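Feature request, filed as a ticket because there's no other form

It would be nice if the structure record came with a short human-readable summary line next to the C-alpha cells. Right now we just get the raw output. Example of a typical job, pasted below so the devs can see what we mean:
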Amino acid sequence: MCRLTNQIATNNSPYEPRLHPKMSLNAASILKQSRFSSKLNKADPSCSRLEMVKSVSFDKVYIREHALTLGDHPCCSSGAPVSLDWKYKIDHEIVPIDIYERYRNGERRDPFDLVLNVHTRYKLLRFDCGVPINDIESVI
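Raw output as currently delivered:
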C-alpha cells in the first residue's frame, strides 16, 4: 500500500481525502428517517413500547486502502509508530454484507497478529513510505 505513497504528491494521485458520496447520502437519509420515526412515536401515545424499538441494518461493506504515514501514538513502546493516512485509494471495493461475512466465516485475527515490531515499522516507514530518517528519529 505504501508503495503508492510517492504518487500522493503528484496531481495524478490515486489518493484523495474525501468521503464517498453514497456513504454520506445514506448516513443523512438514515438520520432523517430515524428522527421522523421517533417524532411519530412521541406524537402517538397509543404506540406500544415494542413499536418504538429502533434498529440498524447494513447491506454493503466498503473496503478502502489507506496510505501509511508516520504516526504520533504515545503508547508505541519502542521505535516510531505507524498510522493510517487520511489519503486513500479512490478505487474501493463494495461487497454485499452477506458475502463478506460468509468469506470471513466468523473468524477474526488475533490482536497480537496486528502488532508490528520496531524493525517492521521502521522498514515500512523508511523504505516503503519514503519517510526521511530525521522525521522518524524526531518522534522516537
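Something like this underneath would help us a lot:
The CA atoms of residues 64 and 112 lie 23 Å apart.
Residues 21-43 form the longest helix (23 residues).
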